[in-house]
Design goal:
binds iron/sulfur cluster, 8 strands, single chain
């Protein structure tokens, strides 16, 4: 069906069911988002909640609203009958048959689902995961705590998941009673702890492999983003930086793309002339070297390619690494020099520029071997990613190396820059944790530095991620109170 209006397009993206209300007024348009909000707020009869096969259900926590790919709610805690509560994901649909229709039966991202909650029952097919596990199903329409039309009137799906004062963590109240300065100090402390933890991991890498290899591995890992960190690091181990030493960028690209398993066939008929020429140059290098890497190359199956922004695809990142090494064969002396001799106000920009000032005659305008050249060049490593690498790789490496070389000034310069560094691009995890800790309104002057953001993420990893009690046994609220008391006493 061709789309002719916005309304139609919206209907295709977010199916909507018109429900006849109990009050006789206009029909109620029910979307999946409303069903998710009902689950999130647990607008269900809590006593006597049952699955379709008669199991009693006790929801300790509905889970975290997931804004990324995969199930709708992560880390829900649910008890069935008298069993101990289990931790897992929940998928919510309008109809029970949607589990099959949306293809979740074959999707490994749904392997950790422990409950399928549908607003209405449709069809009798049981829901199963890709591993063949049968899932308990809950039909919510029969077990709502109010008629659906009343819930429709009281819930505004646009407020979900963050524009709400509900669903905040138990730490929100103690944090609210503390001054913004105290919370800032607490988050900066947590951020510094995170930075030092990263530095400890990198210390071992430096001791094992040397500073340049450690830096190269860490940069590769960071360029793998969330989904390709592992294969990027494996690639850096199998093709060490010493092997790429002083190679022109195209030769380094041939080795990186070859070992990664991304080199296309030599015969690329049908592609444009520039691609044919470029691929030939890569193969001229690779065919002489491939025996050296026999049994050590990665396969395409080891990479996750679906759902990535074209500019972030791993072959483009590898092209960037080749250019980075060609431009700065020894990266560490440049970092150390920037931290030691550049004016403090210029250090952040200079370090990021080492990563952003890269160009490639082919990849600056391409996203893949199959894509057409873009009219405008796009940075191989964008400014936001470069700043992220400075905070998460360069500064921890500098601290690790400064300690190993017994150069306290270097450690101090890296920690000082970390404390002053402007915030990195926000992401779903930062927004999620900020909402849990502060509700809708982050106190003024908070999260204005990368250190505070990193502290927030550390709280998430140390406390939220380990909590299975819907905050009840979390020790962070206590810690926040003690920290605030100590600050006041000082
Ligand atoms: S788990 Fe702890 S840190 Fe996380 S929101 Fe709950 S009380 Fe706060």
């Amino acid at each position: 069906m061709s789309v002719v209006s916005y309304e139609q397009l919206r209907g295709e993206l977010a199916p909507c069911v018109l429900h006849e209300p109990s009050d006789g007024y206009a029909p109620v348009p029910v979307t999946e988002r409303l069903a998710q909000a009902i689950w999130f707020d647990q607008r269900l009869k809590r006593d006597g909640l049952q699955t379709t096969d008669g199991r009693r259900v006790r929801v300790v926590s509905p889970g975290w609203w997931n804004l990324e790919a995969g199930p709708d709610f992560r880390r829900a805690v649910i008890a069935f009958d008298d069993a101990k509560p289990q931790l897992g994901d929940v998928e919510v649909h309008l109809h029970s048959a949607d589990w099959h229709q949306h293809g979740h039966t074959r999707d490994r991202h749904y392997d950790n689902v422990i409950l399928h909650a549908a607003l209405w029952r449709r069809g009798e097919q049981p829901a199963t995961t890709a591993t063949g596990r049968a899932l308990p199903q809950l039909v919510m329409a029969d077990q709502l705590d109010a008629p659906l039309d009343q819930l429709y009137d009281s819930i505004d799906p646009e407020n979900y998941p963050y524009d709400l004062d509900s669903h905040v963590g138990a730490c929100e109240s103690p944090l609210k009673s503390a001054s913004p300065e105290t919370i800032a100090a607490l988050l900066e402390d947590a951020g510094l702890a995170r930075l030092r933890t990263k530095a400890r991991r990198l210390t071992r890498w430096i001791q094992r492999t040397g500073i340049e290899q450690a830096l190269y591995m860490a940069v590769m890992e960071a360029l793998g983003f969330k989904h390709n960190k592992e294969p990027m690091r494996r690639l850096a181990e199998r093709l060490p930086v010493a092997r790429l030493r002083e190679l022109p960028a195209t030769q380094a690209q041939a080795l990186l793309l070859g070992v990664a398993g991304f080199l296309p066939e030599r015969t690329v008929a049908g592609r444009d002339e520039a691609t044919r020429r470029y691929v030939k140059r890569l193969w001229d290098v690779w065919w002489k070297s491939r025996d050296e890497f026999a049994g050590r190359s990665l396969s395409r199956a080891e990479w996750r390619l679906a759902g990535l922004r074209p500019a972030n695809l791993p072959w483009r990142r590898l092209a960037a690494v080749a250019q980075l090494l060609a431009a700065h064969w020894e990266l560490w002396p440049k970092i150390a020099d920037t931290l030691a001799s550049q004016p403090e106000t210029k250090r952040a920009a200079r370090l990021a520029a080492l990563l952003t000032d890269l160009e490639d005659s082919y990849w600056s305008r391409r996203f893949s071997f199959a894509s057409k050249p873009q009219p405008e060049p796009e940075l191989l490593i964008g400014a936001a990613r470069a700043r992220d690498i400075v905070v998460n790789v360069v500064l921890p490496v500098a601290i690790a190396q400064g300690k190993l070389l017994e150069q306290p000034a270097l450690v101090e310069a890296a920690e000082k820059l970390f404390g002053d560094y402007p915030p990195l691009e926000s992401n779903a995890l930062v927004r999620f944790t900020a909402h849990r800790l502060f509700g809708q309104r982050v106190p003024p002057r908070l999260l204005r530095t990368a250190a505070q953001q990193q502290g927030l993420l550390q709280v998430f990893h140390d406390f939220c991620l380990n909590d299975r009690t819907a905050c009840r046994r979390c020790r962070f609220p206590d810690l926040a109170l003690q920290f605030a008391a100590k600050q006041t006493a000082c």
